[in-house]
Input
Amino acid sequence: MIRMSRRAGLLAFAAVLPFVLGPSGTSAQSPAPADLRAALEGTWQLEEWHVDGQVLKPPQADGRWSNRDGVVLFMLHRADSAQSNMGYGIYTMTADTWGYRYLRMQNTTGPPGGPVNIAVSQPAPEMRWFKVRRAGGKVILEGAGEDRREYEGPFFTLIQKGQIVRKWRRVS
Output
């Protein structure tokens, strides 16, 4: 059993409070409805990666995006190089907002077979928040800087500055 002093327990509670309260700083927001959770939670496999003027598809590139139980996981890799990106973090949602933050992000670059360079980024300082909007059968997450995510049926599309960056297909 782990023993913790009352002060340490209060400090731990204070550390997680901003993630529970969300962007407004209050917990008065309504919880996410089941249909929104069903649309945004799951695991997706990469269908397309729009990078360097190319549209890469498996087996040229592959990856996964997953939101489950408050944990976000992200992995991408290219077959023609040692380029690989992966990260994990936390997410939270209400009926009106969705936000996430990576706790670790690692990028690997280099030619196939090496040598490779590995860069580990510092954790994101704050959550990235998105407004939840619905349009027909689509759930649209609109964030700052023209960052947009569209969930429609089995597909999830990441759009930045009006350009498709990645398309994913739900696998679970």
